[in-house]
Amino acid sequence: MRTQVAITIDTEFSVAGAFADPERRRPIGEANVTCPVGGREQGLGFLLDTFARHGTSATFFVEALQTAWFGDEPMGAIVERILGAGQDVQLHLHPCWTAFRDPDWRSLLAGGHPDDNCDGRATAELVVLIEEGRAALQRMGASKPIALRTGNLRSDRNIYRAMAACGLPLASNVGLGLNRPHDPALRLRGGRHWIEGVMEVPVLSYGQLAIGSQPADRLFTITATSTAETEGLLWAAREAGAQTIVLLTHPFEFIKGDRLDPARQRVNRINQRRLERLCAFLADHDGEFESASFAQAARGWLAAPDEPEPRLHAPLLPVLGRMVENKANDLIPAL
């Protein structure tokens, strides 16, 4: 059996500081996904072109509650492009967008910013959010979703209970390197796990030597993980018998600079090379690895028992190399 590598892209518009400064700032729509620099799309366009060139399958978790501000059309055009490229679309939810349904939303900010987390809510409330998001995604042209990713990778058992009630069998709500759930049983580094009748497929978190402010658990993302670390982790996963590895990225990870000022944005060439090399690696080692979308893998995953979480660690030298590379990427615009 080949090790499945699920590249997932959280595809979302940005509130862009509208809650912090409602008089001067407004949400950013398509540009937060397409990420144009120099007349070319360095976000969505780059992703779709790269996947097509290497024959890579991926899942785009598309945020659907932003329709409260933008309506269906802007994200609907993006969904159409993703599906037209043969890629998978599933559901992503950021509840803060629902605040914009109130015409007097600015006055609500006196009580603080809207809650953007799905955990800590009643099951019935979550059912409503899921159903609203699913209906919006289908209006945009997507098939009925089978998988959910909560915003900010937040999880608790009520989320899975609500998913089960809505008939959503797959989740990718856990990312231990970003958020540690209150429930110790949900602190999962990877694998696949049945929770309240739903299969959770966490974003991989791997271990590294804690240096300074660097935490011991690190989330497997394009920005966080160098090519040397990625390839080392995949071979270690293969050796350990891991069946499923999930990576998370966003379209805006492939640009850098001031995301609120298009004139100050630049191509993030280091992150683009990391994705290119990952896709090339999977194509070059297709006897051992395969890219797999959630839609493609669902039947096999749902027919299987739990897969234990892998305990993977990045060696010290690649970690140090990545720290230097990421710092240089932050400081040198041309990289």
Describe the structure.
This protein is of the alpha/beta class. The chain has one domain (3-331): Glycoside hydrolase/deacetylase (TIM Barrel). Helices cover 35% and strands 17% of the residues. The protein contains eleven helices and 15 strands. It has helices spanning 31-34, 44-54, 67-70, 73-84, 105-108, 123-139, 157-166, 227-239, 269-284, 294-302, 316-331, and strands at residues 3-11, 36-37, 40-41, 58-63, 88-93, 147-150, 170-171, 193-195, 198-200, 205-207, 217-219, 244-249, 255-257, 265-267, 289-291. Strands 1, 4, 5, 6, 7, 8, 9, 12 and 15 form a nine-stranded mixed sheet that branches. A two-stranded antiparallel ribbon has the order 2-3. Helix 2 runs parallel beside helix 9 (269-284) and helix 6 (123-139) crosses helix 7 (157-166). The longest helix is centred in the middle third of the chain and has 17 residues, at 123-139. The chain is globular, with a radius of gyration of 19 Å. The protein starts with a strand and ends with a helix. The model has no long low-confidence stretch (mean pLDDT 94).
